[in-house]
Amino acid sequence: MATTKIYIVYYSTWGHVATLAEEIKKGADSVDGVEVTIWRVPETLPEEVLGKMHAAPKREDHPVITAKQLAEADGVLFGFPTRFGMMAAQMKAFLDSTGGLWQSQALAGKPAGFFFATGTQGGGQETTALTAVTQLTHHGMVFVPVGYTFGAGMFGMDEVKGGSPYGAGTFAGADGSRTPSETELAMAEHQGKYFAGVAKKLKA
C-alpha cells in the first residue's frame, strides 16, 4: 500500500503553533500507512526585531520548507498565528511564493486544513481560517475542516478554549504568556488523526 505523505507546515512566534503542530503529528502518526513531517516556513523578520518581541527560539528540529516541496505532500495542514484576524505575514509570504505551483496546479485536488493561535477570544479563531480559504481555492485544494468531529470537547462551556469547526486552535494571551490547555492539545491531536484519515482515503 502506498504511503500517504502529510506535511504540517507552520509559522510560530512564541511557540504556541509549534506546540499544536507536534500534537497534530501525534494524531496523524496514529493512522496506519501515513508518514508525517513537520516543517516551518521561512522567517521574514530580522533577529533584532524578533529579540524585541521576545520571540521563542526557532525549532531547529523542524526544517524550513520551500514552496516546491509542498507538491510532494498528499495532504497539508497549515498552522499560523493571527494578525488582526488573518494569517501572519510570514505564512502569507510563503504562500505568495507558490506561484509556480499555482501555474501548474500542482496542489489541485490535495486536501488541506488549518490550525491557529490567537491572542484573545475575539482574535480570529474563525476569521483566520475563513480568510485563509482563498489560498486553497486558487490552488484547487480541498478544504478539510475538523467540523464537530471532536465531539463533546467542543461543546463544554466550563473553560476558555481555542479551536473551532475550522480547525484546532489556542489562545496565546495578549502577551503570549498563556500556553495551550489540555483540551486544546487533545483537539489538535484529534485533528491530526481525522485529517490523516481523510487524506488516506483521498489518496486511495
Automatic annotation (TrEMBL):
Reaction(s) this enzyme catalyzes, per UniProt: a quinone + NADH + H(+) = a quinol + NAD(+); a quinone + NADPH + H(+) = a quinol + NADP(+)
UniProt cross-references to PROSITE patterns, sorted A to Z: FLAVODOXIN_LIKE
Cofactor(s) needed by this chain: FMN
A molecular function GO annotation: NAD(P)H dehydrogenase (quinone) activity
Flavodoxin-like domain segment(s): 6-195
Pfam family, any one: FMN_red
Any Gene Ontology CC annotation: membrane
PANTHER family recorded: FLAVODOXIN-RELATED PROTEIN WRBA-RELATED, NAD(P)H DEHYDROGENASE (QUINONE)
Protein family: Belongs to the WrbA family.
Protein name: NAD(P)H dehydrogenase (quinone)
